[in-house]
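U., I forgot to send this yesterday:
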Amino acid sequence: MGKHVNEETRIKVVQEALAGVKVGALSRMYNVHPETVRGWIREHRDHIPLEDIPLANEHLQELKRLQEVEARYEKAMKVLGEKELENEILRDLIKKHNPAYVKNLK
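Result:
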């Protein structure tokens, strides 16, 4: 994002920072350097009315929800990788003319 962040997004980032969200978390969320976020805060903090600043509790709940979604995504990707590996092993077994497990069936 960097220099190409529009003014609305900058103000939103400043509002979230003023609500208590850490600068490091905001910089990761919006893919900008933490010093850039701090500059935006210095530039805009005096122009944002207090009623426009969201409650910190709302942001904490949203961040917690986001972390849960990311954890579920990572778990699903791991399971998917394991299943793909199992499928590949089964495909290789099917390709063999005389698999070892067939000999003991009779």
